[in-house]
Model the fold of this input.
Amino acid sequence: MVAPTEDFLPKILGYGGQSVGEMDISAVADVLAADYLTTGPRVEMFEALLCEITGSRHCIACASGTAALHLSCMALGIGREEVGLTSPISFLASANCIEYCDGRTDFIDIDPETLCLSPQHLDAYCRKHKAPRVVIPVDFAGLGADLPAMAELSKTYGFSLIEDAAHALGSFYEFDGRQYACGSCTHTDAAIFSFHPVKTITTGEGGAVMTNDARLADRVRCLRNHGMERYDDLLRQHGGWVYEMNSLGFNYRITDIQCALGISQLSRLDQFRNRRRQIVSNYNNAFSDRDDLLLPHKNLALTACPHLYPIRLKAGAAKRRQVYETLKADNILCQVHYIPIYRQPYYAAKYGYPKGKCPDAELYYSQTLSLPLFPAMSDHDMLRVIDRFRIALG
Ligand SMILES: Cc1ncc(COP(=O)(O)O)c(C=O)c1O
Done:
């Protein structure tokens, strides 16, 4: 018997992935023949588009969402031993950025409905401890965190607020009868996006810092490029080649090649959002009859540009593992977002955080499974997930 070639092997359906079309490919090919490969006109065009989409005044595109978080913390002056708080239900980067600045990272439990950092728990923390220096709420799965409530708390306790909107480009949140774009910085000092291939749009790797504060934007821009400064007086006095480094920065630049892809991808943001919402609505309809499941928050299909579809199996971790493995054997590769960050050996050892530190995060983690959700999924893929998931549940 002849072994099957790759073409005959069934395709693995992951939980997320990019949608790159002919237009994206030719936009990238065009840059390769142009004058700039790294920082050039497409970086500024991409930044201007992100400002237009979110309504934020300044944008600094950079190497990754992680770099954007690090730059934001540095620019806000987070220093040694200063406390930064974030959600345990997030990717490592939301916490690691505080560690990069030699701060002390602590975690605030989630709101069990929205799965985002709970303002009530944050308030309780601030009453009990010295107020933190920075709080980094995460727009989990694309659903905006309760930023207006946290903005009120930031006024009371005096901390800075960075919205981790890595999941939430194209999402909105509601407040006082109005809608605000995630990343608009209406209620925060800064916000960040990620353009990793599983996110709403991609630049391969890439990220951005958004802010309405001109001085903060200048500082982020300077730190993105080694801390180098070139101001008019300096150039007039010493010559056009001169630069000055007053603080230690990084090479966190993004390239024109990446931004050409980003610009092209942004032109399909509405299309990506519509398709993501459509898949979420179809999953919601398909599973609404099951009382062994907890569906995601209703706003995921209404105001968000959904990044993940985290569905909860009330039966808990053993059942979730069984369903995960059954789907995997069927070439449907789900994921679990996320292991509470404080459980990671680095954080547990450094701070002595116990396993059950945040009970709502623990319960959520024991039940959740992210089903495939990305615009390039076909209707056939979606129906296959629905069918196989129902069978796996039994
Ligand atoms: C919530 C969150 N924040 C930050 C990041 C970091 O983004 P990047 O992978 O672009 O560094 C991610 C990426 O997965 C994320 O999910």
Notes: Residues 1-6 have pLDDT under 50 and may be disordered. The domain at 269-393 is CATH 3.90.1150.10 (Aspartate Aminotransferase, domain 1). The longest helix spans residues 269-287. Residues 64-66, 90-91, 93-94, 138, 164, 166-167, 194, 196, 207 surround pyridoxal-5'-phosphate (CB under 6 Å).
